[in-house]
Give the backbone structure.
Amino acid sequence: MQSLSIQLPQVPDIASLDAYDADLLRDLYRRMVLIRQFELKVNDLFLQGIMPGTIHLSLGQEASVVGACLALEADDVITLTHRGHGQALAKGVSAAALMAELFGKETGCCRGRGGSLHVGDMAVGALPAIAIVGASSPIAAGMAFAFKRQATGQVALNFFGEGAANKGDWHEALNLAAVWKLPVIFLCENNLYGVSTHITEVMAIEFVAERASAYGMPGSTIYGNDPIIVYEAVKTAVERARAGGGPTLIECLTYRRGGHKRDDPGTYRPQEEMEAWFKTDPLPAFRARLLADARISLCEIEALEASVATTIDAAVNFALDSDAPAIESALEHIYAD
Ligand SMILES: Cc1ncc(C[n+]2csc(CCOP(=O)(O)OP(=O)(O)O)c2C)c(N)n1
């Protein structure tokens, strides 16, 4: 933790990939590429005026969500944020259903009712996103409470941004989760900014994870732009949670490549900071590490990237060809009168 800084990225020494199964490495990279290509396509569609609504892109944060989700089992559950496309794809929501959701179509993962801010699919353990900052932490703790009572062996992983860690409901969730030793992992994607506000303007300590000790749970701040580092940290937390040890707080230091949302160019960020973080882009970095591994060839990586591009094109066609929900179904699949 000492070697990391909230100001500029510090890339730690990264261990060799030898100990990891090649299929896991391929899966980590494939999901990161899927998120990257999905969001670049979504951005294009917005700029062309083809896609409606608003979007919060997570370009640059792929390693944190993919490393975290691959450390979970299929029946474990995640909660998503307003910046949730990557979280959803990492957990296994199909690109076609996600794209259709963004277009408000009946074939979308929430039948077109949610849009970008509420994506998810319980069939793959992704609770549709809650756009109220901080509000998903008590819900994750609640799900973990149910898992514990029913002895299902499942864990819940709560994604949130560092801005959420200053909300009261977040603190209450961590406290109760620790007191009741709930099987929940609180995973902060610390991208340094809540909209345009730098973390140092709203937090008097350096790292969110320092707060873990106040609740009596382990906490760590890790470099979030390497999927293996995140995978290892989450795996340890998951094992602890399943063994009845209770929650863990993990803070992944990362950076969003763009602004807060599509109408924000993100120009409040210092040039030096942006340049330094952009150099740590998780995709080229992990690609280079894979290429250095004798088990994975350039040809294979290029084929993987091309196949993801085909998946994204198919997702767009599927979404555009799908029908909007019928007007008479407007009151179906909702939980309020
Ligand atoms: C309770 C609440 N207050 C304000 C907002 C408006 N809002 C949406 S995203 C956001 C910033 C959240 O920052 P952070 O939690 O760090 O997540 P990030 O956007 O960096 O992923 C704000 C203030 C909201 N959605 N909910």
